[in-house]
Design goal:
This protein folds into two domains: about 180 residues, Gcn5-related N-acetyltransferase (GNAT) (Aminopeptidase); about 170 residues, Gcn5-related N-acetyltransferase (GNAT) (Aminopeptidase, 3-Layer(aba) Sandwich), CATH 3.40.630.30. About 25% of the residues lie in helices and about 30% in strands. It has eight helices and 13 strands. A hairpin with a 6-residue loop joins strand 4 and strand 5. It holds the Pfam family Acetyltransf_1. Belongs to the acetyltransferase family. MshD subfamily. This is Mycothiol acetyltransferase.
């Protein structure tokens, strides 16, 4: 029987610009140990958001705090009795991705740089879920064949043994495109590889619900009955999207457990069957989100995701679903609508601009240039 690896291992000590900083960076695979540790990460993220005006961790990393998967790695470092820095590496998908945050009062000492370096080390290691993942006889992963900065270590190959295929380069999200994040990326040799736009528009009164064509019908999601059908339609609509397209039923259920989830806000568009046809076909959906606990005077809603399956694209259903989502948010009392869209998705950006959206912010994803 193969032994399990220990939950935590010290991997580095940070060295600030003015000398060594005696703070170990620890890591373990998910989920986090207990509710106390999860609360510490949320407190750290909240402190950074108050300082920076933008949340440092997006929804998926926060959901991953409880995810029972060995393909998520948590990196933590404490200073003066509090969690000073946190990073997360998610090895699922085609390329590993990471997000990190440092508590404001512990910045400018090199901690972010070393968290990023440790994250790159973890990303370079094989995924535990890979069928050819090698372990020593005691269950421990083999030492990484990469230096602390994530680059291949010279002499890592062994005579007569095939070398392991390298993992794709780590991609790191920086929310808000802040100057400090740009400086850290430049110091570590990372370039921008992707931009995620945050768009917004006001919601006015009265709300005019768009007409739904006779060939389709709109209805609310039914938890339990529609789970598998929604996951299949989402996978088809976002087959080439690095995150959205790989959502599973478990991922759907994790979102359904969040305090913002409302089944009435997930609207399904079905193609009505003919007289002799079978069941209705799910061809699109719009999922809206109204976050709980918003500050006084703010009532913001999100067009969380709009999807149309490939066989129904080009029929104007994306515009229809966007209008339906905006009307639903307005009916629920939201005064501002926001959404996220990839900057290089020109058709979608144009659709949203025609719907009255303007740019609020941008999130940036970085990666090291690949060797040629």
């Amino acid at each position: 029987m193969r032994a399990e690896p220990p939950p935590r291992s010290a991997v580095a000590r940070a060295r600030g610009q003015d000398g060594p900083v005696e703070t170990a960076i620890l890591w373990h695979i998910g989920p986090l140990i207990d509710d106390v540790e999860i609360a510490q990460v949320h407190d750290l993220a909240a402190a950074a958001e108050r300082e920076d005006g933008v949340a440092p961790l997006s929804e998926q990393p926060l959901l991953n705090l409880r995810a029972a998967t060995d393909d998520v790695v948590h990196l933590l470092t404490w200073r003066a009795g509090e969690l000073a820095g946190y990073a997360q590496v998610d090895k699922r998908g085609e390329a590993p991705s990471a997000e990190l945050v440092v508590r404001p009062e512990h910045r400018r000492h090199g901690l972010g740089f070393h968290l990023l370096g440790s994250a790159a080390d973890r990303a370079a290691e094989p995924r535990p879920s890979d069928p050819d993942h090698d372990r020593d006889h005691d269950g421990q992963p083999h030492p990484s064949d990469h230096d602390h900065d994530g680059q291949p270590r010279h002499g890592a190959e062994t005579d007569g043994e095939p070398t392991r295929a390298p993992r794709p380069p780590l991609r790191v999200w920086a929310h808000g495109d802040l100057p400090a994040a740009r400086g850290l990326a430049a110091r570590a040799g990372y370039d921008v590889v992707r931009e995620l736009l945050v768009l917004e528009r006001p919601l006015g009164e009265p709300t005019v619900r768009p007409d739904v064509p006779a060939r389709v019908r709109l209805r609310a999601f039914v938890p339990g009955d529609d789970d598998a059908a929604w996951v299949a339609a989402n996978a088809a609509a976002f087959a080439h999207h690095p995150e959205q397209g790989r959502l599973t039923v478990d991922d759907l259920h994790a979102r359904m457990r969040e305090d913002w989830f409302d089944a009435a806000g997930l609207l399904l568009l079905e193609r009505t069957p003919g007289p002799d046809a079978g069941a209705a076909e799910l061809v699109g959906f719009v999922w809206t989100k109204i976050p709980a606990g918003q500050p006084d005077g703010a009532h913001e809603g999100e067009i969380y995701v709009v999807g149309v399956v490939p066989t129904a694209q080009g029929e104007g259903l994306g515009r229809l679903l966007t209008a339906v989502g905006l009307a639903h948010l307005a009916d629920r009392g939201a005064t501002t609508a926001v959404l996220y869209v990839d900057g290089d998705n020109v058709p979608a950006v144009r659709t949203y601009e025609r719907a009255g959206f303007t740019r609020r912010a941008v999130h940036v994803q970085y990666a090291r240039p690949t060797a040629r």
